[in-house]
């Protein structure tokens, strides 16, 4: 209901989706295909990482839970190094902690801490609900919301097995909003693109993805036929 309201509010043809896609019930919720995708994650959306990064992922097409309402679980992975400035801040804080615990040195200088290069990764496992509608020239459009779990992991030669790694390793719930298009190539495949905005407790970033979906469950009633 929330997704349908979003489509109606955006001026898109949600009623057309309900008319073109036959009345579905739970028997139409079945595995129809698997998609493999790659994406682009701008660094400015993720605090402390160095440079833009690529994402890799896959999605399952589980068919339609209701008229025009498709369910699609997915998994996505990206990895990037922390900026030198961010690592320096961690080193300074760690040095202060060591000095506070051990007391001042004979020279009065704080301990030197070198954490080296730190890599931060995000494994995102989620499930999306797509409102799907027909658009001209044989395309489908989809708009949706999703819920996810982000498994964040910090790695580095100097921090592996330490409490610093433990601080960077977290599991966080998240949500996302996404908008995309797809086009059938043949009965067994289709191309798709979508942009998504991911939100967790302290992460906000945009991810643009594209991929190829292999179909083995057939075309749903109301979906376009492949060219």
Structure description:
It is a single chain. The chain is an alpha+beta fold and 227 residues long. Helix content is 18%, strand content 50%. It has four helices and eight strands; from the N terminus they run H-H-E-E-E-H-E-E-H-E-E-E. It has helices spanning 2-9, 14-20, 84-102, 163-168, and strands at 29-41, 53-66, 69-81, 119-135, 139-155, 170-186, 189-199, 204-215. It has an eight-stranded antiparallel beta barrel with strand order 1-2-3-4-5-6-7-8. The radius of gyration is 23 Å and the shape is elongated.
Record field, number of beta strands? 8
CATH-derived topology of the domain at 1-19 and 31-49 and 63-80 and 120-218: Porin
- What is the structural class? alpha+beta
Show unreliable segments: 1-22
Kindly, what is the distance between the CA atoms of the first and last residues, rounded to a whole number of angstroms?
Answer: 32 Å
Overall CATH class of the domain at 1-19 and 31-49 and 63-80 and 120-218? Mainly Beta
Shape estimate: elongated
- Name the CATH architecture of the domain at 1-19 and 31-49 and 63-80 and 120-218: Beta Barrel
Strand fraction: over 45%
Biggest sheet strand line-up: 1-2-3-4-5-6-7-8
On the 0 to 100 scale, the average pLDDT is 79
- Major sheet size, sense and barrel closure: 8 strands, antiparallel, barrel
Portion of residues within helices: 10-25%
What is the gyration radius calculated from CA atoms? Answer: 23 Å
| Structure annotation, total helices | 4
Order of helices and strands: HHEEEHEEHEEE
